[in-house]
Design a protein that fits this description.
174 residues; mainly alpha; 7 helices
């Protein structure tokens, strides 16, 4: 294999520009997706366009990039998100789990008291929507969009909406 590389590099200097010959070929242990694609493509393309090739090294590098993006997103969320918003996110995750469990129970066991299933499932979905609204209105980053609604008013609206929602859900059960 190295002999083919030396014969091709000795036969191509007269036909290729000198810019593509300057970087030495990397060894197989330090081979990365950017060096392999940049040696085969012109140097005028950006690195993001060269990482879209279909070679196996870019697929492995893409999975590392996705995990790095997920880790950066996770770290940024825990460092920059206020504690109040994290609490609302945890409650919303709990509502998703409860709604999923109710749906799975309905599918697996049955829905004999159908009013009870509809009431419980609509209570979880409605509470999720009300909590998402509270999260949007109390988040500091959205302060410019909700200038007329303060955090106290948003919480009062949330409590009133929750009481109204649960009143109708309890009455729907019979």
């Amino acid at each position: 294999m190295p002999s083919k590389r030396s014969t091709t590099s000795s036969s191509t200097p007269s036909s290729t520009p000198s810019k593509q010959q300057q970087p030495p070929p990397p060894s197989s242990s330090t081979l990365s997706s950017s060096t392999t694609t940049s040696s085969t493509q012109p140097s005028t393309k950006p690195a993001s366009a060269s990482s879209r090739s279909s070679s196996s090294t870019t697929i492995a590098a893409g999975s590392n990039d996705a995990s790095a993006i997920a880790a950066a997103l996770y770290n940024t969320y825990w460092d920059k998100t206020p504690q109040r918003v994290k609490l609302l996110d945890a409650f919303m995750a709990f509502l998703v789990v409860v709604g999923g469990l109710q749906f799975l129970y309905c599918v697996a066991v049955g829905n004999y008291p159908f009013n009870a299933f509809l009431s419980g499932f609509s209570a979880t979905v409605g509470q999720f929507v009300l909590t998402a609204s509270l999260r949007m209105q109390t988040n500091e980053e959205n302060r410019a969009e909700f200038t007329s609604v303060g955090p106290e008013r948003a919480f009062a609206d949330f409590v009133f909406g929750s009481l109204t929602l649960h009143f109708f859900c309890v009455n729907f059960i019979n």
